[in-house]
Design a protein that fits this description.
alpha/beta; eight-stranded parallel sheet; two-stranded antiparallel sheet
Length: about 350
């Protein structure tokens, strides 16, 4: 493994990030997940979050990822404010489809054509832009044919409101049917050393169709950084401490074994465990763009540095062996949420 100056995570990089392609869409080799700036990971600071977005753009990150359900709504507004004077530097991605009610924990899914159109117009207003570069269906609606949903999304492309289409957490058959209606540029799905179930069918399907893969939670919701070692590591308002099976008592302790091995491997290479885990995802293919989320400048710069780590085949095999699939304890979502994946 060569470090390409990446281990010095707080120094100015010698060059901007290279680019990759998601279908016909060109983006920086690493994106920025903005969700946690507004919800799910405890209190945020809008001013600091905007500084993080601006710094990401300086470093060559172009893909910014948000969704209408984050907040709900306020994350799109935050991203909109951050990019208002630099829209041309951004590949802006947002999502529709997850409906939230008065109960913060309640979720439902819609993909009917009228809802697609209404959501797009609302997102455009909140973001303060005239088009969305990459528009995802956040979760597949089991009650609406994917042909109807993607057909409505294709109409948004024709109207100039959207440039490229994406799906999130869709199954192989749905991906094929959607792509037959309109080219799908990107599939967003969870991919990390402890979430590898997509490798058997989802990744081959996407590659057969020329669809890029946007990997969310590439750091295992921060767990693979080694910063969270007990259940009380998570502050108030952090969903990892209350709703994530892999962080539950018993599972967390077992999963720490993965982190311990990863930290050892990272130490031998002069990088952090998080950087090594993130670099592993980035090395899964030139059609893969990880979107680690952060609201802190320190972690942003560490993450971007990881995109310039060079790993050999032997490195990749050794890193993967640190987290065999049968060693991960707990589902990646609660059972009800798991039923919404892979449709």
């Amino acid at each position: 493994m060569t470090e390409s100056n990446a281990a010095s995570s707080n120094t100015e990089p010698s060059n901007r990030l290279p680019t990759r392609r998601l279908g016909d869409l060109e983006v920086g080799a690493q994106g920025l997940g903005c969700m946690g700036m507004s919800e799910f990971y405890g209190a945020g600071d809008d001013a600091e979050s905007i500084s993080v977005i601006h710094r990401a753009l300086e470093l060559g990150v172009t893909l910014l990822d948000t969704a209408d359900m984050y907040g709900p709504h306020i994350n799109e507004e935050l991203v909109g404010r951050a990019i208002a004077d630099r829209r041309e530097q951004v590949v802006l991605a947002t999502k529709f489809g997850v409906v939230r009610g008065e109960d913060p924990a309640a979720r439902s899914v819609r993909g009917d054509a009228a809802y697609v159109r209404a959501c797009c117009d609302a997102s455009l207003r909140r973001l303060g832009v005239d088009h969305i570069d990459l528009y995802y269906q956040h979760r597949v609606d089991p009650n609406t044919p994917i042909e109807e949903t993607v057909g409505a999304m294709a109409e948004l492309v024709e109207a100039g409101k959207v440039r490229h289409l994406g799906l999130s957490e869709a199954g192989p058959d749905t991906i094929r049917r959607a792509n037959a209606v309109h080219p799908i540029a990107a599939l967003q799905t969870e991919w990390s050393l402890w979430s590898r179930d997509l490798e058997a069918e989802i990744v081959p399907t996407a590659r057969e169709l020329g669809i890029g893969i946007v990997a969310y939670s590439p750091l295992g919701r921060g767990f693979l950084t080694g910063r969270f070692r007990t259940a009380d590591s998570f502050g108030e308002g952090d969903f990892r401490g209350v709703a994530q099976p892999r962080f539950a008592e018993g599972n967390l302790e077992r999963n720490l074994g993965i982190v311990d091995v990863l930290e050892k491997l990272a130490g031998e290479r002069g990088v952090t465990a998080g950087q090594l885990a993130l670099a592993w995802v980035g090395h899964q293919g030139q059609d893969v763009v990880p979107i680690p989320g952060t609201k802190r400048l320190k972690y942003l710069e560490q993450n971007v540095a990881a995109a310039r780590l060079e790993l050999s085949e032997a490195d990749l095999a050794e890193i993967a062996a640190a987290a065999p699939a049968d060693a991960v304890a707990g589902l990646r979502y609660p059972e009800e949420a798991m039923r919404g994946l892979g449709r």
